[in-house]
Amino acid sequence: MEGAIKMNSPIKTLFSLTVLLCATTAQAAEVTFSNVFVGGSLATGATFSTTMDGIDFTLPNARVSDDPHAAPLGNVTIGYVADSTEPMTGDQLMLDSLDLAGSGTVLFHETIIDIQDAFNPVLLASFEAVLNGPFAGPLNANLDFSGNPTTRIFVIKSIALTSFDFNMSAPDFAAIASVQQSFQFIPEPATILLFVSGMALLLYLESRRNGKSAPRA
Predict the structure, then answer these.
(1) Strand partners, 143
(2) What are the residue boundaries of the structural domains of the chain, listed by start?
(3) Nearest to residue 144, comparing CAs of 82, 90, 186, 182?
(4) How many CB atoms lie within 10 A of CB 62?
(5) Distance in angstroms (rounded) separating the CA atoms of residues 174 and 159
(6) Comparing C-alpha atoms, which of 93, 135, 97 is closest to residue 110?
(7) Do 55 and 80 touch, CB atoms closer than 8 A?
(8) Distance, CA of 163 to CA of 99 (rounded, Å)
(9) Average pLDDT for residues 13-31, to the nearest whole number?
(10) Predicted confidence (pLDDT) per residue in 120-174, tens digit
(11) Contact 120, 164 (CB under 8 A)
(12) Per-residue confidence band for 70, with pLDDT thresholds at 50, 70 and 90
């Protein structure tokens, strides 16, 4: 039929493979969380929620200040076990709605341990930050698992807040509203193959187009 697109064998093969992979690519990796706990003197009212690849903690009372009716120091401890359907390679951490003034200080520490082999735990990553006032806003960090992907980890976070009245003429306080964490994964083989085949098809079509447009000798 005039005007129809003719596909030769290489294009047909790549096209068929791409369609097949699109139809059979597995669902995105999913993380499940267990043994979740939140403790410490500032953990009252703390809650958590989960997504397919992360967990968020809300800390409504993680605040200290030099107010006579408030605590000048306190702490929060968070821990959980994360199991993934695909190997995890790292995570993105965000401490949100940090608010510090005067002598307010937040000390944050996180440790991530590979417990895929319960008898041979392996330290994957750790992160520490000391924040002093004045400071406002989020703090972001990326933790890499040092080339040791795993499907099961134990995460422990400790947050210490202090605020002593060193300056009587200015307020001193420290607060953190939430801690958010999401994980990265090794791309699925089908996804990688889909990308490679798609790129090969595009390169082939581009070379064909360039060959037809080149002037003849």
Answers:
(1) 91
(2) 9-26+191-213, 31-187
(3) 90
(4) 27
(5) 11
(6) 93
(7) yes
(8) 12
(9) 58
(10) 999 999 999 999 989 998 999 999 998 899 999 999 999 999 998 766 677 899 9
(11) no
(12) confident
**In the numeric block, which tokens belong to residue 49?**
């929620």
CATH C-level class of 31-187 = mainly beta
Structure tokens at 87: 């190997």
Contacts of 180 (CB under 8 A, 6+ apart): 54, 55, 56, 57, 93, 94, 96
**205: confidence class by pLDDT, cuts 50, 70, 90:** low
Q: Where are the beta strands (DSSP E) in the chain?
A: 31-39, 47-50, 54-58, 63-65, 73-101, 105-114, 122-132, 135-144, 150-162, 173-175, 178-185
Confidence of residue 214 (pLDDT cuts 50, 70, 90): low
**The two structure tokens encoding residue 51:** 């997504």
Distance CA 133, CA 214 (A): 65
pTM of the model: 0.74
Question: How many Å apart are CA 173 and CA 62, to the nearest integer?
Answer: 11
